Amino acid sequence: MRFYKRLAAFLSALLLAGCGWSGSDATSSTGGGTIEYWLWDSGQEPGYQKCADAFAKANPGLRVHISQYGWDVYWSKLTAGFIADAAPDVFTDHLAKFAQFVDLKVLRPLDDLGIDDGDYQEGLAALWKGQDGKRYGSPKDWDTIAMFYNPAAVAAAGLSVSDLSGLSWNPTDGGTFEKAVAHLTVDKNGRRGDEPGFDKNNVKQYGFGSDGAGGTGWGQTQWSAFTGSAGWQATDRNPWGTRFNLDQPAFQDTLNWYFGLARKGYMPSFAEIGGNNAVGPDKQIQSGIAAMALSGSWMISTFSNLTDASGRKLDIGIAPTPIGPTGKRASMFNGLADSITTLSKQPGNAAKWVKFLSGAECQDIIGESGVVFPARPEGTDKAVAFNRDRRKLDVTPFTDQVRDKTTFLFPVTSNAADITALMQPRMDAVYIGSSPVSSLTKLNGQLDNLFEVAQ
To answer: Residue 453 carries which DSSP code?
Structure first.
């Protein structure tokens, strides 16, 4: 936290020195300019280059230069850019980060863009409003969670697509979901997880893959679908809660059951997936280590391009998250946005680009690429059609969560970096088995203290 206080002080001095709003845009001799735009997903870069080309055609003299960096490098480079006055004009923002950026006053309000919340998926645009009521992000895309699976492994276990679609779970015995996971698990001797003599210490194929402990993103692709369908939410209200709920039985009972799958040999251990340098669920399914796993809709393109050991395209299926104790499915609903930095020398040009990014033309271009679900419903429909027609892949388990209103919002709070620093080692310890889930009660108190510090 001391680092962020120093950064805030530095940025305040920088802005007072005139490195923020200058009253006019920096331009070239021809009256135009180059807008610097950053994103982290290489899969989306081609689509946004098409958007940039269309934008340049509609705005003679302006062009967009796109820089793509991997997730970890992206955020460290962005933070360094804020300090060194080398940040881009516009960047792809994430809900886990934006609250802290608002606190640091490095984001420019976008209320003058005339964004209409009703043009986007319900509730998506409102996520990007700060506690001051101002908008700091322009809706870009959204994502939910579903279950990717290997159809061959599922068929070999005698299970059908309808079986996967009807699974339910509970924290006591795991329900039909755990029964399916157990049956999909196979040890080195060919015994399934629900058969006598199963060797949990020598597993060839796990019924359920793992994406880590979930301490860096509120369990989005790990346990959030289970805690959400148990009726739990991370804070007392969202966004901008005032206390955390990691001490509640619904949360701790769910995590005790969830990580218990690894203790039973149905899910790989923390060490087996590579710890915090985890081999992702896509690679686990591709290599046959796992039969199915939860992952986000942003991974559709990655899963659809997987190949087997011989180089042939690997068949992939998508099933919905299991029904929980509430009687409903659940998925975290997360959205990305485009934000303008206060260090931009050409905020007017940057605003034109952000407005174009959130408009129908660009959102349709992105939808037709099939990589993500654009924020506008029409763009989403194009992405669904692309996957159905071009990839022969039914992605409605992701979109049905929105249609059926079984989503819950990614927790939006201040002090995101401090929350991650506290949560990650504690969640890792629970997954490893060196700490019980009851240890999260102490963690909850530490997280609550962050609210007091922020005031």
So the answer is: H
Give per-residue pLDDT as tens, 43-60. Answer: 999 999 999 999 999 999
Strand pairing partners for 296? 145
pLDDT at 1 (0 to 100) = 44
Same domain, 133 and 186: no
Q: Are residues 167 and 259 in the same domain?
A: yes
Question: What pLDDT is attached to residue 18?
Answer: 36
Cα distance between residue 267 and residue 208, in whole Å: 5
Q: Within this chain, do residues 351 and 305 fall inside the same structural domain, yes or no?
A: no
393: its two tokens: 């892949």
Closest by CA position to 130, among listed 148, 155, 149, 110: 110
Provide the residue type at 29 as one letter: S
CA dist., res. 324 & res. 401, Å (int): 14
Q: Could you give the count of Cα atoms lying within 13 Å of 220 in the half-sphere of its Cβ?
A: 18
Q: Is 15's pLDDT higher than 80?
A: no
Domain of residue 420, residue span: 145-332+413-454
- Determine contact, residues 350/344, Cβ cutoff 8 Å: yes
CA atoms within 13 A on the CB side of 265: 19
* C-alpha span between 243 and 237 (Å, rounded): 8
pTM (predicted TM-score) = 0.91
- Report strand pairing: 33-39 vs 62-68: parallel
Which residues 6+ apart lie within 8 Å of 251 measured at CB?
227, 230, 232, 245, 440
CATH number for the domain harbouring residue 257 = 3.40.190.10
Which residue is it, tokens 């009726």? 231
CB 430 within 8 A of CB 252: no
Residue 401 domain-assigned?
A: no
User: Is it true that the peptide bond before 239 is cis, omega within 30 degrees of 0?
Assistant: yes
Rounded (10°) angle between helices 249-263 and 416-432: 50
